[in-house]
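Minutes, project check-in
Item: structure for the 139-residue chain
Input as provided by the requester:
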Amino acid sequence: MADKLTTRQRSEQMRRVRSGDTKPEMVVRRTAFALGYRFRLHVNTLPGSPDLVFPRLRKVVFVHGCFWHQHSCKRGNRQPKSNVEYWKTKLDRNKRRDRGTRVRLRKLGWRVLVVWECQTVPSKQGRMAERLQQFLTAT
């Protein structure tokens, strides 16, 4: 059984969680660049401040962490064992916010792609690159 963390330890652990320039995001950036695309990062004038913005194409890419945005994969299905109600509320709120952000972007004329953290692992990067290429070349 895992040791319980103190409040201070948990706080320190959470402080290390990054919101930008994450490893999965860097994989997607390198892939898009290698495919010959140039983009802007975290444009805060757009809803949700998308991770990659292709202004000329009117397309955006979000790179979501599976746990934080509740993907249906193994990592995304993990649930915290302590402070359960807090985490359930927080994660549900993240999902609702993400859905609203995608709707608002589409209403503004932007096409949206979500790349999940689990799709950026080395064994799946080829498929992710194909998907990204298809998204960016589609009219």
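Outcome recorded: The chain has one domain: 21-137.
No further action items on this chain.
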